[in-house]
Design a protein that fits this description.
This protein is an alpha/beta fold. It folds into two domains: 114 residues, Urease, subunit C, domain 1, CATH 2.30.40; 289 residues, Metal-dependent hydrolases (TIM Barrel). 37% of the residues lie in helices and 22% in strands. The strands form two sheets. Strands 1, 2, 3, 4, 5, 14, 15 and 16 form an eight-stranded mixed β-sheet that branches. A hairpin with a 2-residue loop joins strand 2 and strand 3. The longest helix is centred in the middle third of the chain and has 18 residues. The two termini are 20 Å apart. The structure holds zinc ion. Zinc ion (ZN) binds next to loops.
């Protein structure tokens, strides 16, 4: 993929520019509703960075001086690109058979027994050449850009075995260099017990700590370390040891917490200084208070609830009202959330979890950036920050979730360069 040097762009006459301007910390409580809207707004980029943001007319002279390329944004919203802070983007095949079996009433356990579930994804990864995995991820990255995502976290995890996990992370590293999008690699160190370790869970955790984590750290293949801490997955004690081992080697913890049952995983996230605790469907009132009093970003993933046909969604309202730093992400994965579209996640956040459109946008941009420890460079439109922004063909930001399951993204700009344009 060729990368011509970005010059200067002048996004002018936007119906609304959403700056999300503010401090580098996550937005909490009422701050989640503050988008920093500039009507008839404009934005100037210079190279990879944002140069100025303001009323469109006030930027005309500076645009001339810079010989900026004008982009007419009449009738459109200009806002920061989406930061999708939780995905399992690298896998070898969909699980559409599991999907149909579930629709026919089969339980998760029955599907796993019939050869489905995470183990089936692991089997497909084992058979897949790195070039094939790369090709699949490239397709997903193009779709992400087309839907307005400019930064995406990518977890390993479908490798399960050490050599396979390293294979996945090396493909991600290659794509970090090749893709115009920003990929943030996470080692999902314990996801499910590989079949070869049946009945030897302790041995597996030991091998992850002694062999996998040091190998990943040595090759600098990941920035974060994640664990699936839940009923039927890994215990709080095992996850504590895994996260501590990762942290010792420079990997920042994050955690899948309280999705299927309340296990104390969110508390573990707080205890070990995790960047985020994700899912949180089953948190207690005390957990909500503890999260609100911590720096852990509470990342909600309503795409999984939607795809699984669940009636209950994570308690976004309680978390926001208590003062937790709430983020939204797709949880893109073949088993429970096969969507790449952050705009649809906003619709779910609003209609199913009672968030306002403004809260959902904040959660999907600056708070997602906080969850990835990148709030000083991305997530808002402020001079000096990376020019990561999108143009959506609606005149009012509230129409983004309102017209649901539609792609409003007309253009995506990453580091000052147009990487997707509908025209
Ligand atoms: Zn996940």
């Amino acid at each position: 993929m060729a990368r011509p040097r970005p010059c200067s762009l002048f996004l002018r006459h936007a119906a609304q520019v959403l700056t999300l301007a503010g401090g580098a910390g996550p937005r909490r409580g009422a701050e989640l509703g503050e988008l920093g809207v500039i009507p008839r707004g404009g934005l100037l980029t210079e190279g990879e960075r944002i140069h100025r943001v303001g009323a469109s007319r006030s930027l005309e002279r500076e645009a001339l001086r810079l010989r900026a390329e004008p982009i007419d944004c009449r009738g459109c919203v200009v806002m920061p690109g989406f930061v999708d802070s939780h995905t399992h983007l690298i896998f070898a095949a969909s699980r559409v058979n599991d999907y149909e079996l579930r629709l026919r009433g089969k339980s998760y356990e029955a599907i796993a027994k019939a050869g489905g579930g995470i183990q089936s994804s692991a089997a497909r990864v084992r058979q897949a050449a790195p070039s094939r995995l790369r090709q699949l991820v490239c397709g997903f990255l193009e779709q992400l850009a087309a839907h307005g995502t400019t930064t995406v976290e990518v977890k390993s995890g479908y490798g399960l075995e050490i050599a396979q996990e390293l294979k996945l992370l090396r493909v991600i590293r290659k794509l970090q260099r090749e893709s115009p999008l920003e990929l943030v690699p996470t080692l999902l160190a314990v996801h499910a017990l590989p079949a070869s370790y049946n009945g030897r869970a302790t041995q597996y955790v030991e091998d992850v700590i002694r062999r996998l984590i040091p190998a990943v750290a040595k090759e600098k293949l990941a920035e974060f370390i994640d664990v699936f801490c839940d009923r039927g997955a890994f215990s709080v004690d095992d996850c504590r040891r895994v996260l501590a081992a990762g942290r010792e080697l420079g990997l920042i913890p994050r955690i899948h917490a309280e999705q299927l049952a309340r296990t104390g995983a969110a508390r573990l996230g707080i205890e070990c200084g995790a960047a985020s605790a994700d899912h949180l469907d089953k948190v207690s009132a005390a957990d909500v208070r503890a999260l609100a009093g911590s720096d852990v970003v509470a990342t909600l993933l309503p795409g999984a609830n939607f795809h699984l046909g669940l009636k209950r969604y994570p308690p976004a309202r309680q978390l926001i009202d208590a003062g937790a730093a709430v983020a939204l992400a797709t949880d893109f994965n073949p088993g429970t959330s096969p969507t790449l579209n952050m705009q649809f996640i906003l619709s779910l956040a609003c209609t199913q979890m009672g968030m306002t459109p403004a809260e959902a946008i904040t959660a999907a941009t600056i708070n997602g950036a906080c969850a990835l420890r990148r709030a000083s460079t991305i997530g808002s439109l402020e001079p000096g920050k990376q020019a990561d922004l999108i143009v959506l063909d609606v005149p009012d930001y509230r129409e983004i979730p309102y017209y649901f399951a539609v792609n409003h993204c007309a253009a995506t700009i990453k580091r000052g360069r147009i990487i997707h344009s509908r025209a």
